[in-house]
Every structure is written in C-alpha cells, then in structure tokens.
Amino acid sequence: MAGMMVAQAPSVQGVSPALSSSLIGTGGSPSDLSLNSAFWGSRKINCSSTLAPCKVSKAERRSAGVSVRCDASKVMAASTAMSGTPVRSTSILVVGATGTLGRQVVRRALDEGYDVRCLVRPRPSPADFLRDWGATVVNGDLSKPESLPAALVGIHTVIDCATGRPEEPIRTVDWDGKVALIQCAKAMGIQKFVFFSIHNCEKHPEVPLMEIKRCTEKYLAESGLNYTILRLCGFMQGLIGQYAVPILEDKAVWGTDASTRIAYMDTQDIARLTLTALRTQKADHKLFTFAGPRAWTTQETGVGQPRSISDSLCERLAGQDAKVTTVPVGILKLTRALTRLFQWTNDAADRLAFSEVLTSDIVFSAPMVDTYATLGADVKDTTTLEQYLQEYYTNILKKLKDLKAQSKQGDFYI
C-alpha cells in the first residue's frame, strides 16, 4: 500500500476532465429557507434542494452567490454511457480525510473492512499516511465543484468530515462546497450521506458557521438522499493544543470568563459510532447528537480559577500550574463588532462570532442513552475526558523523561 500513487480523481475513475465538467450544471431556484440576513446582509444566500437548471447568466450567478450544482440528466446520461461493476455497499468516500475527525473515520473504516476513498485537496506534500493505511487518495476540492463527480463514481456512501480552513471565507467550503457535494451525490445516486454538524446550531443564528450547519442540515434533509446527520459537541483532541501542551511548555494559556459547558468526545469514539450508524437502517433519515459522558467548563478542563493546582484537570495531570491570560467575553464581542465595520475583516468577524456562544450559558451536551440503544453501542466503550488526558500525559511525560535521560547519558560520554 505504501507504494500506491496519488491519483487525480478523473484518472482513477476513468472519467475524462471534459466529461467531468459536463456532469456539472448550474441552478438556483429560490426557497423559503435562507441563511440569516442579520449577519450575511448582502451575502444572504438561498438554500434549495431542487436540481432545476439555472436560468440566470454566469455574471448574475457570481453576483448573487448562486452555487454550482450537478445536472441530474447529464449525470444519468453519462452513467448510462459508462459500464462498470455494481457499487459495493462497502465503498466509502471520506471528504475532509486529513482532518482531526476525518483521519479517524478513515482509519476505523479501513479496520472494519471498508473500501475507503479519500477526497483531499491538491497539496505540495500528499497525504501519504492515508495511502500507507490502505486508502485510495483522489484529488478534489469542494470549492471546485467540477472536481466532484469523478470522485463519486462507484461510491455507495459519502461521509462528509470537511470544513473550511481558517484563512478561507466560511461559506466557500461550508456552504457553497457542501451544497455542490450534496447535489452531485443526489444526481449520481449515492446511497447514503453522513453529515457532521454542530450541537445547538439552530439556537445560534448569529454565529455564521452554526447557521450554515443548520441550513445545510435542512438542505440535506430535503434533498431526497438517504442521510444521517451527526451533531457534535467538541473534540477532546482540541484540548491538547489549547491547554495540555502550553501547560507542559510553561507557556501562556488563553481562556475566557465564560461558564459554557461542553461534553467533549474522543474522535476515535465518534468514528466508531459513525461506522456503527452505517450498519443499521435505524439511523436512516435521522439526526443524532454525539456527546461525551460529562460536560466541562473551561475552568475545569484547562485553567482553574482561583489558581490552584487541583482546580484544572490539565494542571492536575501535568503537575504544574498554567500561566493563564483571561480574556473577558465582552472584549471578544467588541472586537467582533469592530471587525464587522470593514469588508476585509468580515471573515475574522465571522469566526469571532463564537464569543456569542460563550456567553449563551447553553450546555453543549445531550443524553446519549437512546442513541446508544438505537446504534446497539455500549456507553462503557466511550472514553472519558479524564481517561483521555491521563493517557496523553502518561505517554508524553514518559517520553520527556526518556529524552531527559538520554540527554544526560550523552553529556556523560562527551
């Protein structure tokens, strides 16, 4: 597997670039569902599940922000012209396969015997680890819809783990790209579509990403696809870079004075439950929230207040206090308001919108009893945050101790 080459999607699927382009049409009929105009203003966009051909010009589409969509008739005609083997139920396309969650989904799917294809953006250093694991890697980009149809040929299930990069406008991937992916999946007869969303997204229309997630959920539900929507609360992995590493390196840890509680979950557990959902029809056309065993505040996980080595989980396991810099949520909100004044800082303002969530006093958690019962999973198999961080610190402190010992041994022989 290590010797497999990264292939361009068209060559892997046997679809020429010209044919791939012909599979894409344009469309944009109005719908009663649209993204909240309070923050989008002139950037307000429609969210339609229809595949009707677009009647407007290219210039009008660009100015109106109408997304590109698959033309079902062209796809069906092209599919009829191409012969091939029947689609296997084990064939999966993972979008966003190099991300924190995506890579765990890929690894779990491969371990369970699925044939995994990964859609990744063209990059200077290819995703070698995905090929080494046994996955097929194809190049594609959600912001370039013409690259999507070829990657979907021969696929039974799409698992969408993708999200935009910090430097990109939020809507480029998380709205325009997702709409194009859903449209192409529908047009090409994908049997199941798994979409990862955010818990409580419908309660925060003022937060661009959460409003986009809410709208995409509805768009997918109205698309006619067989779908499963999985809402997530937070990744345990995110706490490593945010708190665990800075504390160990005696660097500043940034926190807020908010009391929001989040039920973090290990991405390996999310991947396990996701694959479990694929195997049962009980998850078809359903929405689930995946939450960890307990909801934690910032003060409980990373930085204790008042200062005490026992107040914070990360500090207690590291055996040292954190150098804390607390940023009042009010400052974040003020910064967001200022960045909204300038067009070139709109994207930064969109990401600062999470300051609204931090002051919401909403608990990002949900009961999991019914979810475990539906999926036939056991809560005992789910990692707690204490177990996750304990394992991390045990391993990292052992490595640091070994490195220190090797350093001393080297000094002795010099």
From TrEMBL:
Cellular compartments per GO CC: photosystem II; plastid
Record keywords, A-Z: Photosynthesis, Photosystem II, Plastid
Subcellular location: Plastid
Coiled coil start-end: none
Official protein name in the record: NmrA-like domain-containing protein
Keyword Membrane: no
TM helices/strands, residue ranges: none
One biological process term in Gene Ontology: photosynthesis
Pfam families attached to this UniProt entry: NmrA (PF05368)
InterPro entries: HCF244-like (IPR044256), NAD(P)-bd_dom_sf (IPR036291), NmrA-like (IPR008030)
Highest taxon, organism lineage: Eukaryota
Domain NmrA-like residue range list: 90-282
